[in-house]
Amino acid sequence: MSEPDVVRTALRFVNEINRHDVPAMLSLMSDDHEFVDSLGHSLRGKERLREGWTTYFGLFPDYRILIEDHLQIGIIVGMFGSASGTAAVGVELPPSRRWKIPAAWKAVVRDERVEKWQVYADNEPAWKAMDVKRV
Fold this sequence. Notes:
By secondary structure, the chain is α+β, with helices and mostly antiparallel strands. The chain has one domain (3-128): Nuclear Transport Factor 2, Chain: A (Roll). It is built from 4 helices and 6 strands, in the order H-H-E-E-H-E-E-E-E-H. Strand 5 and strand 6 (113-121) form a beta hairpin.
């Protein structure tokens, strides 16, 4: 796989996240895909990720990733920018529940599939928007 294809696959994955198209996201994942959140917790496998992303998009119906820059080394793509969303309250998206945070992502891409998606961000603003008290 050429270097531009690695980047293209990672950016397509971001595009499908922004569209909240879980089936399209799954089509870009390897069978043993691993997701690692910003606290180091991981989920592995497409079925677990189908459930995880569907739940996440329910919590933050307008979740978006904005990539401002990226770099690529071999099969690894680092992406830098911000994530934003609004914590859903019933069917409402009140402005007071909106958050935006600087973030980075690491994608490991092999054979046009994302093997690993890792998030680096401070999720405190998202927890605060949901009125979750962290200990």
